[in-house]
Amino acid sequence: MASLIVQVIVDGLLLGGVYTLMAVGLSLAFGVTRIINFAHGEMVTYGAYVAFFAFVGLNLDPLLSLPVVAVLGAIAGHLIFRLSLEKILDDVGINQVLLTFGIGLVLQNLAVIMWTGDERATTPPYALESWLVSTDIIVAKGRLIAFGIAVLFIVSLLAWLRWSELGRATRAVSQNRSAAALVGINVRGIYALSFALSSAFGAATGAIMSFLLPITPFMGFPILVKAFAIIILGGMDSIIGTVIGAFFLAICETAIGYFVPNGIGWAEGVAFFLLVMVLIARPTGILGKAGREA
Amino acid sequence: MTIKLTRRAGLLGIAFAALMAPQAAWTQDSIKIGAPLSLSGKFVSYGAAAKRGIEMAVDVYGGKVAGKPIEVQFRDTQSDAQAAVTSFTQLLSQERVNYLIGPIATPMAMAGVPAWLRAKALWIVPGATTPLLEEKAGKEPMFFHTFPYAYHYHASLAKALREKLGPGKTLAIVYSDDAYGREHLPYAQKYFTTAGFKIVAEELVRAGATDLNPVFAKIRRAKPDVLLGLVQTTDGITLTKQAYVQRLGVPYMIGTAYPQLKQWQDATGEAQEGWVGVTTYIPGLEAAADPKYPVLFPATKDWIAAFTKRYNRQPEFVDVGGYVSTMMLLLAIENAKVDDKEKVAAELKKLDVKTMIGRGHFGPTDGGTLNQAFADVVVHQRVKNQDAIIFPPEFATTKALEQANYPK
């Protein structure tokens, strides 16, 4: 029983790392711009495809292609913001939702046209390797790598937000964009930067997902749904809240999977039920704050 | 003024009729075949493959049948049930096609049933494994199913494994919570139990689940000899990779249709070693040309060469199924000598040809389908990145059933 509980904790933590990767970019973009980016899942999808084609065509390990994928994601995110979202920043929220939803659909169908609906995956050696800690405890290398990268992303992002000039400006815009503009911060520039960073995180997550999950043009939407649940749970404007939400959801799902009959089938439903319960008790999410200027 | 208007109207009417006449005549003079297929969306790989097979069959046949040009009207069901209904309605009510081929994916075929039941064109379905289709359409004389049903999969799998493993073996089943998993489960239970397997675990997984480790923990405790994964391809990839990474240790790993797919093979790498699957066509399956129609149904290797030359890729089972189904329809139209669906259906029932995927002849199933062909299922195993055929005995390329591979 003790080893089973250890395995549940190990699996829950490793899955939490994967969920953190899925949600961190979306959380950053929403926290700063207040735009819910329904095309974020497609950033993950395109990142996964770039990593896949680099793996197949150039024999480049997804971990090595990750920085390039992230830069390409940042460029794509910046372009999407400048060419479309910036023009409707002052519109009602539903227009922004419809626009990002439309961009997501276009990107998804473009992926189908270019690459068909075939499932793909990268297969670097570590994707199929694991450590046998004891007869009952197994740690998958691919998941552990994803966990490590999630930690790296979060630490880097928090450090950037806290200690860099641009990071502080980003926090200022997130807290009060009118006041930030009054002190001379280029709010639109910060928006564009946040969107680019968010897309970079999304694309980099795709590179990691390329060896963990099957790559298809449709992989983005379930990831988006999960990411939304996580950032709502954690508090929609808090990176730390997102991390807590990711691990809360992952550990709940894993525990239900292990201890409830047919638990994997129930896990998501029960986890989302818990999410609703948390939101009833605390509508702003675990670390979210009410009353911020939009 | 009235006379002038009437004359003008009359002249316009004549001009309109003159303009439309060639169109009407052309329309009547072509044999229209409707092909509702998933040409976009999640089932696009099936739809694209069926389209390749249909187009190749029409070209090999020469583009004309019974002296008339063949006009295949493809409609994209977009892998969406509502769009599939629209495709069927357009083809049957507006285009008034007498013949339909497709769709391949089960949900799309099921969506088309109500529209088809109103028009009852001759409908060939070279896919859709659900016995629900058999229940809804199987008893209709204009319905022709050219792909195995779910129970054909499990009858062959259970028989092959019983032969290879002997009596007293235990089985664990992982099934997805979508229609695919739930529909296959009762047939797997029935045929494997009848073959003498004891089911020691049945685990439900959510389609698209990220983490299957909790399921593996339960299966590991049950210590089965065989694991049967009743999931679709995307989940099949996750199941295969995670079972390998988690060193599940079950000696024999069985899938349904996915182990034959190149995309599954490419995505699972070394984890695929030892997996068993079912199909209607697999590379290595050798069949001779049909003696009466050697050009239309050539020897397998010759057909593969022609397909590969045309499309620059290896055919998969839907490519072959689409080709064979279309070719049989064209032969039936030729034999009927007239664009009459009833007469063509009668000719189709009479056909008995040797094809690349076995005997092309329609007969009834135990489940109630009046016109079923190609119900024979091939059981194959991935061994050293190749396919070894283990069942039926007449096509077998190996006698041994290998154990699945795990990291040391």
Overview of the molecule:
The complex is a heterodimer of chains A (294) and B (408). Chain A has a single domain (2-281), classed as ABC transporter involved in vitamin B12 uptake, BtuC (Orthogonal Bundle), CATH 1.10.3470. Helix content of chain A is 74%, strand content 2%. Chain A has helices at residues 2-33, 40-58, 62-83, 93-115, 141-163, 165-175, 177-182, 187-212, 220-234, 239-259, 263-281; strands at residues 130-132, 138-140. Chain B is an alpha/beta fold and 408 residues long. In chain B, α4 packs parallel to α5, α6 (150-165) packs across α7 (179-194) and α12 (317-336) crosses α13 (341-350). Mean pLDDT of chain B is 90; it is low at 1-5 and 16-27. Classes of the chains: A mainly alpha (294), B alpha/beta (408). Chain A binds chain B through residues 4, 7, 11, 15, 18, 109, 112-113, 116-121, 123, 127-130, 132, 138, 140-142, 212-216, 218, 222, 253-254, 257-258, 262-265, 267-268, and chain B through 40-45, 48, 79, 177, 203-206, 208-215, 217, 233-234, 237-238, 241-242, 244-247, 263-264, 266-271, 407.
Largest sheet of chain A: 2 strands, antiparallel
CATH topology of the largest domain in chain B: Rossmann fold
What is the CATH topology assignment of chain A? ABC transporter involved in vitamin B12 uptake, BtuC
Low-confidence parts of chain A: none
Poorly predicted runs of chain B are 1-5, 16-27
Helix/strand/pairing category of chain B: alpha/beta
The two chains with the largest interface, and their residue counts, are: A-B, 41 and 41 residues
Net shape of chain A:
globular
Distance, first to last CA of chain B: 98 Å
What's the CATH class label of chain A? Answer: Mainly Alpha
State the order of secondary-structure elements of chain A, H for helix, E for strand. HHHHEEHHHHHHH
Q: Indicate the radius of gyration of chain A in whole angstroms.
A: 19 Å
- What is the overall pLDDT average of chain B? 90
The name of the CATH architecture of the largest domain in chain B is 3-Layer(aba) Sandwich
